[in-house]
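Need a sequence for this fold. Nothing fancy.
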């Protein structure tokens, strides 16, 4: 599933990151069963007591959606998680690119420029997903 493809590096809050790591340690969303057994496996895999408590909170908290959650909901939510991190990567790459002289380091400049174009396309796609593909 898409959830498993979005690793813990995209979670900026430490508790959410710890929950994400615990989900991976429990086999990931793709291997998830249902109900209390899977929640117990995730909680047992969690090394942080506060994050373990958060797992219980998240399990019972109602989702803030008007329709049943589906793949679109997951895609939108996970894209929103990734946007700030990828946006920071774009800013960092632009900063690096500005410090390279294209006349004296053309190969490095072109490599960085290619990476920037790819990363900006990824960011644009994530932003579109984050607003529901509008």
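Here you go.
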């Amino acid at each position: 599933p898409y959830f498993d493809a979005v690793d813990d590096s995209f979670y900026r809050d430490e508790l959410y990151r710890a929950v994400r790591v615990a989900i991976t340690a429990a086999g990931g969303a793709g291997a998830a069963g249902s109900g209390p057994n899977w929640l117990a496996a995730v909680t047992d895999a969690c090394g942080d007591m506060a994050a373990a408590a958060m797992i219980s909170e998240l399990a019972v908290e109602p989702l803030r959606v008007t329709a049943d959650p589906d793949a679109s909901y997951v895609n939108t939510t996970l894209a929103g998680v990734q946007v700030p991190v990828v946006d920071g990567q774009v800013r960092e790459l632009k900063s690096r690119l500005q410090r390279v002289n294209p006349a004296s380091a053309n190969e490095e400049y072109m490599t960085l420029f290619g990476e920037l174009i790819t990363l900006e396309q990824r960011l644009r796609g994530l932003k579109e997903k984050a607003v529901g593909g509008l």
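For context: The helical segments are 2-5, 14-25, 36-45, 49-60, 71-98, 106-130.
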